[in-house]
Amino acid sequence: MNPQRRLSRNLLSEARAYGYTLSIWGGGGLLLSQFGTPSAAEVFAYVGGAIVAFGLLALLTFGDVTAEPDMEKKMKATSFVHVFATIGNLLVSYLLTFVLHGLLAFLVVGVQTTFTYNVLLLPEEYIAHLWHRSV
Asked: What is the pLDDT of residues 16-56, one digit of tens each?
């Protein structure tokens, strides 16, 4: 077993989800910090908002929520260090907790977390692409 190769495979398989996981947990943590323990309705609003945003993004991207994306694209290591998407997303979530309250806050932060995180990945991917072309 080659430890470096194994670690490389682990990082590549985890890369697509880790930044989103940090964002969704971070957004939930910010809501907890601002509003305390959520009610069941607020939890469903948060998760439901994330699901709605994911469906909307799929519809806008593929024109259909049942389309299968081409996953054969090779990833570059620089494109999966999601600093801008994760931190930018958490900043938006944090600011929203000051202007929204209750069920609406949980719903909007849930939608925003999924939507903004995925949109902010686009400039990160573009910068990684430019950086690799210049190296």
From this structure: 688 889 999 999 999 999 999 999 999 999 999 999 998 88
pLDDT in tens, 66-93: 666 665 655 555 555 677 888 899 999 9
CB 70 within 8 A of CB 61: no
Specify the pTM: 0.76
Question: With contact defined as beta carbons under 8 Å apart, do 114 and 24 qualify?
Answer: yes
**Sequence-separated (6 or more) residues with CB below 8 Å from residue 102:** 35, 42
When divided into structural domains, the chain yields a total of 1
Cα 54 from Cα 49, distance rounded (Å):
9
Rounded CA-CA distance 73/103 in Å is 39
Question: Is the separation of the CB atoms in 114 and 53 below 8 Å?
Answer: yes
Where in the sequence is the domain holding 119, given as residue range(s)?
Answer: 3-134
